[in-house]
Amino acid sequence: MKAQDFGRTAPGKLVPTIDGAVAFLPDPLPPRRVLDLEPMINLLASASQSLGELAGIGGIMTNPYLLIRPLLRQEAVASSRIEGTITSVRQLALFESGMDVAGDAPDAREVHNYVRALEHGIARLQELPVCLRMMNEMHTILLESVTDRRGARVRAGEVRGEQNWIGGSTRIKDARYVPPPPQEVMPALHAFEKYMQAAEPELPLLVRLALLHYQFEAIHPYPDGNGRLGRLIIPLILCERKALPQPLLYLSSYFERNRDDYIDLMFDVSTDGLWERWIAFFLRGVEAECRATVTKIRRLQDMRQDFMRRVQRARSSVLLGRLIDLFFEHPILFVPTIARDLGISYNAAKNNLKRLAEVGIVKEETFKGRRYWLAQDILAITTNEASET
């Protein structure tokens, strides 16, 4: 990291760290100078309106979890891909079904952990605000059973005790960015937590979210998983603050599409205090992903209604409706799983699957010699990878 890159307007200071290098210690939030939000007032209004529309459609869903689960998988795949962890939505669904995909998708477990970590955070909101304790719990889940791939220094659920750096180099002096030394991490995190939980009517919630996401990434408090955890807390804070009734807004797809800008704009905040450019980028992401998510939710709702009409025309039992809902939660299923979850016999499960196949809702496929049932249209709404194996 080059000390000369950090100007007088940098929102923090350079401090010495290992091997004669320097690290960046960000100032506590809020920023010391008054933010100039006037040029982005229309963008802020548009992002807020889009968020309100998403909250509205989320508030009238009869069974939101059936529609949230496909969106959550897409978020897990996109967020993990930013960090170089590559798994398709289809491979993730195969892993969730109990299929051994290690040879074809070794990262599937890690991506699945992302889904589990977010679900844990959502459940914990009933008992806790978004806080360091919750983040440590989520980090534990995020890296469960994968820390051996990260090395002995990575301990799930524990704030780092060693210096880390960002930039793809094995030498700290060649790194692009060096976050605070380990002895500065906990004080910085406590200040982060204090600001996250404080009421600040002077700044809109979406602007504060942009500040918080930058701050978390600047602190980089864990040996691994910082980017994913930093993106995970965005929908949690929106739910905690009642801006959304359900965790419906995920920004990782936007960040992935604009990966260079995502990284560069946060770096520019650190070096020159260019908060407004980062905030505007963040707000554009909120607007874009809110609109995209509204479209996907409506398509999922329309699809579910269409599926229900198909089985009604076939004069089939109510059991088929329950089976359809099961596929919205898990688009790849085995016959024994269906029999167990619906409390029916193996033969009854298979017969009902054949009825769904007759009306084009599911189809039977094979992976590594094991036969399973796939609701391909559900996968196709959230990814263009539905035809992959």
From TrEMBL:
Domain Fido: 130-284
Gene3D superfamilies: Fido-like domain (1.10.3290.10)
SUPFAM superfamilies from the UniProt entry: Fic-like
A Pfam short name: Fic_N
InterPro entries: Fic/DOC_N, Fido, Fido-like_dom_sf, Fido_containing, SoFic-like
Superkingdom of this protein's organism: Bacteria
Chain segments annotated as transmembrane: none
Protein name: Fic family protein
